[in-house]
Design goal:
There is one protein chain. By secondary structure, the chain is α+β, with helices and mostly antiparallel strands. The protein has six helices and five strands. It has helices at about 25-40, 80-85, 120-135, 135-150, 155-160, 165-175; strands at about 45-50, 65-70, 90, 100-105, 110-115. The chain has a five-stranded mixed sheet, sandwiched between helices. β4 (about 100-105) and β5 (about 110-115) form a beta hairpin.
């Protein structure tokens, strides 16, 4: 698998271009390849692993970055995989603004490690699953992403923040009793 170098520092989010691509079936294969690599080096600590984010939703417009969510038994277990993830070319970012998450990133893959059932574990899965099964939500989210890309083309933070109301509305439908 050919991967771009991960040691090139990313530009700050406020100046990086928001790049979106039509759904690519190759994203599922890339997830499987990364899943295997992560499990190979850190599988002793991982209880389950999922493809999340827009690249996990067939038919959805997405940034071409694979999001992966390994589950661990308890938060402290995440510290045990830092070295292994760094050996795969990931930067360890700590919680990076989200409680109970160990966040690792490369330019092409983001890994969000949570204790199973804690932090944003359920929300990530509920959002993905709702979009997978509701075409009208995928269509609306794609339209919103296109609009926000035009409005916030060079500001990832603004682009991400502007999606929050839509995401909350989907989560309310996906998990009405939560």
């Amino acid at each position: 698998m050919t991967q771009p170098p991960s040691d090139i520092p990313e530009a700050p989010p406020e100046v990086r271009e928001v790049i979106l691509r039509e759904y690519d079936p190759a994203w599922a294969q890339l997830y499987e390849e990364w899943r295997a690599r992560i499990l190979d080096v850190a599988g002793d600590h991982i209880t389950e692993i999922h493809h999340i984010g827009s690249t996990a939703v067939p038919g959805l417009l997405a940034k071409p970055v694979i999001d992966i969510m390994p589950g661990i038994a308890q938060f402290e277990d995440g510290f045990s995989i830092v070295r292994a993830m760094q050996d795969l070319g990931f930067q360890s970012r700590g919680e990076f603004g989200l409680l109970l998450r160990h966040y690792f990133n490369r330019t092409d893959v983001h890994v969000h490690v949570y204790p199973v059932g804690q932090g944003q574990w359920h929300e990530q899965l509920a959002f993905r699953d709702y979009l997978r099964t509701h075409e009208e939500a995928r269509t609306a989210y794609t339209a919103l992403k296109r609009d926000l890309q035009h409005r916030h083309r060079y500001n990832h933070n603004a682009y991400t923040e502007a999606k929050s109301d839509f995401i909350a509305s989907i989560l309310a439908k996906a998990r009405p009793n939560a």
